[in-house]
Automatic annotation (TrEMBL):
Location of this chain's protein in the cell: Membrane
Protein keywords: Membrane
Family annotation (Gene3D superfamilies): membrane protein fhac
Database matches in InterPro entries: BamA/TamA_POTRA (IPR010827), POTRA (IPR034746)
Domain POTRA: 97-175, 178-235
Annotated protein name in UniProt: POTRA domain-containing protein
GO cellular component: outer membrane
PROSITE patterns found in the cross-reference section: POTRA (PS51779)
Principal subcellular localization: membrane
Pfam families hit by this protein: POTRA
Signal sequence extent: none
C-alpha cells in the first residue's frame, strides 16, 4: 500500500521509511518480496524501527504517534487498479542532539587513548546510535583478537536536554583471557585432522585470537582442505 508521514519529520521521508521492515510502500521490489502486504500485527515493530532510525540521525527524543489506516484504490506495478491500505504515521522529530562528553571505563588491558580511536564520533558531531554500535563492535573485535572473547561493552547514555547533547560512557567488562584448548573437525572424510591442524595459524594452547582463527578457516578453505558448513562452534 502507501506509507505517509505527517508532522515535524525533519528527515527525508524515504530515510524514515527505511526504518520500517514489515509494512513497505507498494513498489516492484516490495511487491516481489511480499513486503507490501499490510500487516496490522507488525505495526509496533515498524514504529520501533522508525524511532531507531531517528536516533541514528541524532533525534534522541523523537516520538511516533498511533498510525491511522485508510483504504485507497491505486494502480499496482502491473497497472491494475487494486484496493490497498494507506498508513499515515504522525511523527515529531524534536531536536537533534550532538555528541557531548565521551568516556571509557572498566578497561585495564588496553589504554583509554587507544580505545578512543575506535570510537567513530567526537564531541560536537551529530550523535548517532548506529555509529555508537559500530564503535562497540570495533572495540569488542580488538579484545576478541587478543584472547578476551568473553569481553563486553555496554554504553550508558545521558541526555542533556538543555544543551542538546548526549554524554556517553562505554563501560567495558574485559573478562579473562582465553586459550585455545582443542580443535575438532566434524564431517572430515578428506584427510586426517592432524594434516588440517598443521595449516592452522593458531595452535592448541595458544592465546585465542578470533582474527587468526577466521584467517585459518579461510586459508584451509582456499587450500581445499575443508568446506565450512555454518559457523564454527566456539565454547
Amino acid at each position: 500500500g502507501e506509507v505517509e508521514f505527517e508532522g515535524n519529520t525533519k528527515l527525508l521521508k524515504s530515510v524514515v521509511r527505511g526504518g520500517m521492515k514489515q509494512n513497505k510502500k507498494h513498489g516492484v521490489f516490495a511487491w516481489i518480496t511480499g513486503k507490501d502486504v499490510f500487516k496490522q500485527n507488525k505495526i509496533s515493530e515498524d514504529i520501533a524501527g522508525i524511532k531507531e532510525r531517528y536516533r541514528e540521525h541524532g533525534y534522541m527524543e523523537a516520538t511516533v504517534g498511533e498510525p491511522r489506516i485508510e483504504e485507497i484504490t491505486k494502480r499496482t506495478v502491473l497497472f491494475k487498479k487494486q484496493k490497498m491500505k494507506k498508513i499515515i504515521i504522525p511523527v515529531n522529530a524534536g531536536y537533534r542532539y550532538t555528541v557531548g562528553e565521551v568516556k571509557i571505563e572498566g578497561n585495564k588491558i588496553l589504554s583509554a587513548k587507544g580505545l578512543r580511536r575506535l570510537i567513530k564520533f567526537k564531541e560536537g558531531d551529530v550523535y548517532s546510535t548506529k555509529i555508537r554500535e559500530k564503535s562497540i563492535e570495533e572495540i569488542g573485535e580488538i579484545y576478541r583478537n587478543i584472547g578476551y572473547i568473553r569481553s563486553a561493552v555496554y554504553p550508558v547514555e545521558k541526555l542533556d536536554p538543555k544543551r542538546k547533547r548526549v554524554n556517553v560512557t562505554f563501560n567495558i567488562i574485559e573478562g579473562d583471557v582465553v586459550y585455545l584448548n582443542r580443535i575438532e573437525f566434524k564431517g572430515n572424510t578428506f584427510t586426517k585432522d592432524k594434516v588440517i591442524r598443521r595449516e592452522m595459524l593458531i595452535r592448541e594452547g595458544d592465546r585465542f585470537s578470533l582474527a587468526m582463527f577466521k584467517d585459518s578457516i579461510l586459508r584451509m578453505s582456499q587450500l581445499g582442505l575443508i568446506e565450512p558448513v555454518g559457523e564454527p562452534d566456539i565454547r
